[in-house]
Amino acid sequence: MKISISLFFLLILLNGCRTMPATDAPEHGTLKIATLNLYHDKDDWPRRRVQIVEEFKRERPDVIALQEVIQREGLVNQAEWLAGQLGYAWHFVSTDPPGKPMRYGNAILTRHPVLLRGEQRLRPLDDSRTAGLLRIDLDGRALNVYVTHLHWTDQGGPIRAQQVADLLQYIAATSEGIASIVAGDFNATADSPELTSLHGGFIDTYGSQHPDADPVSSSTLNLKYYAPKRIDHVFYQRGEFTPVSSQVIFNQADADGTWASDHYGMLAILRFQSAGKD
Questions:
Q1: How far is it, in rounded angstroms, from Cα 25 to Cα 61?
Q2: Which domains occur in the chain, in start order?
Q3: Mean pLDDT for each consecutive 10-residue tract of the chain (278 residues)?
Q4: HSE, side-chain direction, 13 A CA sphere, residue 202
């Protein structure tokens, strides 16, 4: 059978389209969120940030929660730099006042319109801990995202419990009945006593998806630096979401042996339980 040259190339093109991989973009009604402790500017930040940007460009999370974000003389705010590379909006919170030569804190990045920004200090005030809030418009649906980074010492359970209480009080005062997510570095496993009060309204995404995960594969502490422990979490509000998936990311060095951070990251996909505005 004879076919024209134009038809021949058209058939090749169509066949190629059929074999292309399907997009992994989140479907409507879902949220993709990542959290990562940046390890501020330790080790080789100019090299580390390359793989962080590349991974986030591949995954395109709706929201990214960051901890240990720093800016200082000669170093642009890390959240601002990452947001510029990704084309995201950014919100940075710190106990260091604006204009101070060095500022250190948490941040939230998003590729969606921002509706509201907020922040709150957590007690004790000399521990320099905060909670940040970014309310976004996710395809016509309002969503609250809270970021935090709790006290770090092994003996600091009571301090973390106080900070969780302050965080929950802040959420109650600002959520306005809108579905909420809490993400960050809690410096405690999800089942730690100091996080008990959080479980009343929120569920550990990774734990709900991987109840029998072993400590090594589920660790968010980089095993090059620490013993295995999962202390970085995404908590979703009860009754508002159904978890789709949750995985540890940034748990491999790049081709040059550079790690993204001294922590691994967490990536979760959640589905809203109720229909949103179209």
A1: 9
A2: 30-272 (3.60.10.10)
A3: 38 34 57 98 97 98 98 97 98 96 98 98 98 98 98 98 98 98 98 98 98 97 98 98 98 96 98 72
A4: 25
